[in-house]
User: What shape does this take?
Amino acid sequence: MTDYGHELLFGAFITPTAQPVHQAVELAVVADRAGLDLATFQDHPYLPRFHDTWTLISYAAARTSRIRLSGNVLSLPLRQPAVLARSHASLDRLTGGRIELGLGAGAFWDGIEAMGARRLSPGQAVSALGEAIRVIRAVWDAERAGPVTVHGEYYQVEGLKRGPAPAHDMSIWVGAYKPRMLRLIGRAADGVLPSLSYLEGGPGDYATINQHIDDSAREAGRDPGQVRRLLNINGTFSEFGRSFLNGPAEQWAEELAGLTLEHGISAFILASDDPSAIEEFAAEVAPAVRELVAAERA
Amino acid sequence: MTHPLRFGALVTSVAGARRAEELGYDLIAVPAAPDGDDWTLLTWIAGHTAKAGLVATGLDVARGEPAMLARAAASLDLLSGGRLELALTGAHVDEVADIVRGVLDAGETGPLRYLGEHHRVPKAQRGPLPAHRIPIWLSGNDQRSLRLAGRTADAWVADLDVIDAGELATAYKLIDAAAIEAERDPSEIRRILIIGPGLGPDDLTALGADTFLVRADEIPELTAWETLRDAAGPPIFRPSSVRAKRRPGIDYDGVPASLAGTAVEPGDLDYARVRSTYMRGGAPGLVLRPRTTAEVVNALAFVRRHPELPFGLRSAGHGMSGRSTNDGGLVVSLAAMNTIEVLDESRRLIKVGPGARWMDVAQAIAPYGWGLSSGDYGGVGVGGLATAGGVGWLARKHGLTIDHLHAAEIVLADGSVVRASATENTDLFWAVRGAGANFGVVTSFEFEVYDVGNVGFAQLVMAADDPAELLVKWGRAIEESPRDVSGQLLMGPPRPGQPAFAQVMAVVDNDDPETIVEQLQPIAAIAPLYQQNVVLTPYTGVISNAADGGYHQGAGEPISRSGLIEHLTPEFARAAMNLLASGAVHWFQIRTVGGAVADVAPSETAYAHRSANFSVIVMGSSQRRVDAGWAALAEHFDGLYLSFETDLSPARIEEAFPPATLARLRELKHRYDPDNLFRDNFNIKAAKR
Assistant: This one.
C-alpha cells in the first residue's frame, strides 16, 4: 500500500484531430465546464491528421477559463527544450498558471525521422530527456544571474537569455514505462504519466513503476512524494459491471479509489472524445473517488 | 494587379489585439521577440479575436524543425478560420520556406522529400491542409534577402526604424528585378512596412508599401488613413505559380464576377478539397461554387460558353452515375446552397438547398418530430438523390424521396428560372422526379415531410452457409413484412477458412419495442445469427452515419451495376451467388423497395419501375469482369435505378426508363435542353424533330 497523499486530479485525454477543425477545442471546453482539472492532448506531429499539439493547447487555453492544460505527452525529439520552456512559461503567464509540461522521449521513431529529426536509441533518448529537463528548468530559473549554459551531448545551449518564469511552479510530467526512464523521473521530474492500455499486466504494473521511481528518488536525496503518479485510463460506462472500468460510475469510482490507495495514483486522465463520457466522468466519478479516498485517508 | 491597402497594429496583449480589431485594423501583428514566445502569444490572441489577420512579424525559424513549423502554421490557420500569415526570419530561411510550402501543399500526392544543404526532410507527410493559402513573408534588407524575396516570397516586410525611404525604394526595385527574372509579376509581392504613428496619408503613399503595421503605445484610430483605402473589395489575386496550373480551353479570366471569389482552379489551395468526389478521383479545370440561384444562372452561362468541355454538376459528391468530377472540365458545385428551412409548419412543408446533406436535413427537422427517408448514408447530398429517386431506410413505409417532393425551383439550360409542381410546369415536375439531372439545376426543393418518431434499428450478422437459400428466405420475409420494415442485405465474396455470412440491416418505423421485436422476428429467424444489435433510436441515429469535416479523396473510377427485381427467386439467387463466388464483385447489396413505393402509378413520375420489391447493386473494380458476370443476371431484372449504375452505354437508359417514359423524357429534353447542356448523368438524347 503506497499513497503519496497528493490532491486528486481528474482530466480528459483528447485526440488532437484536425478534422473537424474545432472538435478538440470543443472537447476541452466541455471538460472545462464539466469541472475536470486537466485537458490534455496527445502529440504525434508526424501525422498530419492531427493539429500541432502546442498550437492547439495555446488556442484551447484561450477558449477555456479554469481548466489546466498540458501535452500528453509532447514529443521531445521534434521540439526544442528552450522553446518548450519559453512557450510553456509564456502560456502559463497568459493563463494565470493553468499550464503543465507533459513530455515524452519519443515513441515512433520512423515518423520522427521522416520529419527531419535524428533517430535515437532508447538509452540515448533517456539521456536526451534528462538534458532537456536541465535546459527547461534553467530557462525557467529567471531569478538566477547570467545566461543559460548547458553543454550536453544532445543539447548545447550557450549564453541563452533566461526567462520568462512560469506563473506557477510548473510540473514536468514524463510519459514512461521502462526502468531507465523511471529512474530519471525519480531524480529529475515532477510526475510520471503512463497509459493504462500500455501496462501489459494491467494497473498492477504500477507497483514496479513506483518501485523504480521511489528508489531513484531516495538515491538522489528526494522525497518520493515529490513525484506525482498520473495515469491515462480508458473504459466504458455501462449499466452493469463487466470488467475493469467497464460498468457504472460507482464501479469506476471504487476501482480508481483503489488505485489511489494501492499505488498512490493521484491523477486519472480519461482517454475519450465523447462529450457525454467526459461529463459523466466529471460529474459522477471524480467526486465519488474524492469522497472514497478522503474517507480512507482520514 | 494592385493589392488593397491594409493596416495592422503591433500588439503584445489580447487587450491590444481586441482594440485593433475594434478600430478596424486588418492585421494583428505580434512583434519579434516579445517577453516570451511569439507563436504562443499569437495563438492565444487568435483564440480571443475573430476577424483580423494574424502574423508574428519575426518568427525565428530556429525554433524547431521546418516541417513542424508548417504543421503549426496549418493548425493556427485552421483554428483561426484562415487568418494566418507567416513571417519567417533567421538562418537558411530559404530552405525553411521551401519545406514549409511543401508540407502545406497537401493537395500534392506523396510525401515531401527535401534535401537541402542545411535542412533535410526524408519523407514528411503533407498537411494538414490549411484553411487558406498562407502568405509567406520574408525580410532582410541585404541584397541576398531582397533577391530571395523577389524570387519566392508572397510579401516582404521592412521596418522604417531600420530602413529609410530612399533605401526602401532601392529595395523595392531589387525585389522587382528579382521577381521579373524569376518570371513573376513583381506586383504579386506585397510590401509590408512597420511604421511609427504620426505619418499622414501622403507620407504613406510616398513610401509605396501596401500594408502598414503601426507600432505605437496607443493604437491610433484609422480615420486619418481611411481615405487611402480602396472602396472596392479586394481583387481576386492569383500569383503566377497558381496560373501556371491552368488547363487549356477555359476562359479563366472570363469567370463571372459573382463567382470569381469562390471559384477554385487547379493551383488554388482549396483545389484539394474540391477536385475529387466520394468514390471518384478527379482533376477538373475549374470548379464554380454558386451560392444563390442568380449565381447558378451565371455559372450555366459560363458553362454554355464551353460546349466542348466535360461539365459535372455536384451537390455533395457521392454520386456514382453522375460524373460530378472530371479531367480538365468544368464542375458546378452546389455545396454552398445548403440551407434547410421550415416553410409551413402546419403543412409540414420544408425547403432545402441541393447542397445540404441528408443527415443535416434529418437533424434539422427532427425537433418537429418529422422525418424524410432519403438513402442509407447521411453524407449524400440532397440534389442528386432527390432528382433520381431516393431508396431509403423508410422506403416501404413512406415511398421514395421524390414521392414527397412538393415543388422545385429549377434553372434551365437557357438560364431561365422556373418553378415546377403539381400545378406549375407539370411536365418538368414529372421529369425532375427520376430524371432531373437531364433537365436543369434544381436550386431548391420543397418537400412535404411526415411524422417519424423513434424507430427500431437492427444490425444482424447471419450465417450464410447456403447463401442462395438465405437470399430467397430474406426476400420472402421482407415481402411478407408489414410496411414498417425496410432495410438491406449485404454480402461479400466467400473467404477461404471463414464461415460465409450476410449483414442484414433493418429499420422498423414503429416506436413500440414489442412491435419492433415482433416484426423483426421473421427476418431474424431465417438463419442462425453470429451477431445481433437492435436499438430504439430517433431516425437521426440511423442516418447520421457520415463524419463531419474533411473532404472527399476518392481515387480511380467506381464500377457498379444496378438492377430492379420483383421477387428474389431461387433462380436469381443462384445466379447472384455464382457472380459473388466468381470474385468479380466486391459486394452484393440488396435494398428493399416495394410497399409505398408501389402505391405511386408508374406514369406519375419519371421513376417508373414501381413494381420492383428490391434494388440490387454490385460493385467491382474491373468493368469487363463485372459486366460479364452481371450479364448472367440480366434476365431476372426489370429496369434499374440509375443512382447505382456507372455504365454509360445507351442501353442502360432504356433499362432505367420504360418505353413510354423514355419517349416522354426525350420529347421534354428537346423542349427544355435541346443543346444537351446537362449531359453528365445518364444522358437522355433529345427527340429528333
In short: The first strand of chain A starts at residue 9 and ends at 14. DSSP finds nine helices and 13 strands in chain A. The two ends of chain A are 15 Å apart (CA to CA).
